[in-house]
Each structure stands twice: as structure tokens, then as C-alpha cells.
Amino acid sequence: MNTLKLKSLAYHRNGVGGEGFFVAIVEEKEGREKRNMMVIRFPDIDDKVGAIVCAAFDTSLIGKGNIDFGVNSWRGDHYASFMDDAIKDYNRKIDEKYGIEE
Fold it and tell me: Are 42 and 21 in contact (CB under 8 A)?
């Protein structure tokens, strides 16, 4: 069974006028094997482009400078719903911190 655990999550602006995005380090465990994945999620634009906008990379390969397709390319759509839940929780905590109510 494959399990995912959020290790860290941050929001980034994409310049002044670009779409903002979230970056996370997600620990993925399958059996006895673990790997850390860097997952990038552009929320709220899936409907605009007609596809899930989420990318995932193995951090150990990034550390070696490897971003090659077919080597360090993973199915971002497998992480999208996990990221969406993490983003909702992140936004809820920010709202609570600043006393924002819907």
C-alpha cells in the first residue's frame, strides 16, 4: 500500500501577475521503501486548462541535478487530491491565524 505524508508546504507567488502555486515535500512510502517527493500544485486552474496541473519530482534525483523526463518524471495527478486536501488545511490555518471568517 502506498501512503503519503506531508512534510512541508509553502505558497509561492509566480511574479507579480502570474498564477500562485504551492510546493510541498511529501514522503511517499511503499512497503519498506520511502522517498521524498517535491510536489508542485497550481490550484484552481485545472478547469481553465482542462487537465490536472500538478508536478512531482524525487528530491534525491533533484539533488543530483536530474530532472530528466523518464527518469525523474512522476504522475502528478496521483498527488493532486492529496495536495488539494493539504492546501485546504493550510488555508484554514492561515484564516484562523488572522481571524478570517468565510
Answer: yes
Q: What pLDDT score was predicted for residue 53? A: 96
Q: Give 65's DSSP letter.
A: T
C-alpha cell at 20: 500562485
Tell me the residue type at 67.
I
Contact by Cβ (8 Å): 28, 3: yes
- pLDDT for 79 equals 97
* pLDDT bucket at 38, cuts 50 / 70 / 90: very high
> What are the domain boundaries of the chain?
2-97
What is the pTM for the complete model shown? 0.90
Contact assessment for residue 77 and residue 92, using Cβ atoms and an 8 Å cutoff:
no
Which stretches within 10-76 are classed as H helix? 46-49, 59-63
- Residue 8's φ and ψ, nearest 5 degrees, are -160, 155
Cell digits for 59? Answer: 528530491
